Amino acid sequence: MGWRNGLAVMVVWSLMVGLTACGEAEGEHRMGGKEDEKRSAPVVEAEAVPAREKREWQSDYRIRVPQEWGEQVTGVVSRIQTSEQAIALTLDACGGDQGSGYDRELVEFLRKQEVPATLFINKRWLEANPKTLEELASDPLFTIENHGTEHRPLSINGRSVYGITGTPNVEAVVEEIEENQRAISERTGRKPRFFRSGTAYYDEVAVEIASELGVKVIHFDVVGDAGATWSAEEVERALMASRPGSIIILHMNQPHSGTAEGVIRAVPRLQEQGFRFVKLDEYL
């Protein structure tokens, strides 16, 4: 087997491990409690009423039969459309028993180098790290976006991937998106515009529902750390394959992974090549 085939096998295997486990749990998940309860939530502007009542449009979707299932189905954005030397770092915070840590080294490097990033936050990670979430939301380098409530594949009929069962119906799709929308809005005072599901798998009907709810579904064209399972060398090599318009996926919830070191090595090299790092909301 050639090295390219070997690398492809490694990528698939790493994605399966990384997306299902998300590594070791660590972070503020044992903190919070009464002190956090006393914190007053930011004032959030009233949400606009959908063009149609939810009961009406949800019933329309219940009779649909999905024709697509995967990572890049119709309606999913995998790249930003630009001819500039612009690339977007996106950092997922998956949450849960195996993924509620905080890679402070990674985030502090981005701050020191003034490198912006779009942060996709899962509700479980938010609940484990409420103070950190508010701190990140107050930093203009970062934009907080929605990584789902229970970190599930987004499906209207319970499709599964990597052993993780997707949302079982239309109502569950809405809840997977909207419950975390409310949680992030209450903590940050800003309603997310972008959504990425747990595992990054969808059917095309669920993507349409996301659009109806006012969020754009974001994928990627560069796998940066395979669920925080890759070494620093592998992360560096993956990032150096970026092209103008690339969206890179990395993870900020695994401080013991090779992600931070790989990013620290790759970012200066990419900047030397003329690349500029951007947030998604600059282009989408």
UniProtKB/TrEMBL annotation:
> Domain NodB homology, which positions?
85-278
Which Pfam families does this entry report, sorted A to Z? Polysacc_deac_1
List the CDD domains hit by this protein, alphabetically. Answer: CE4_BH0857_like
Among SUPFAM superfamilies, the record links this protein to: Glycoside hydrolase/deacetylase
- Could you tell me which PANTHER family the record lists for this protein? GLYCOSYL TRANSFERASE-RELATED, SECRETED PROTEIN
* The name this protein goes by in its record: Peptidoglycan/xylan/chitin deacetylase (PgdA/CDA1 family)
Q: Which organism is it from?
A: Desmospora profundinema
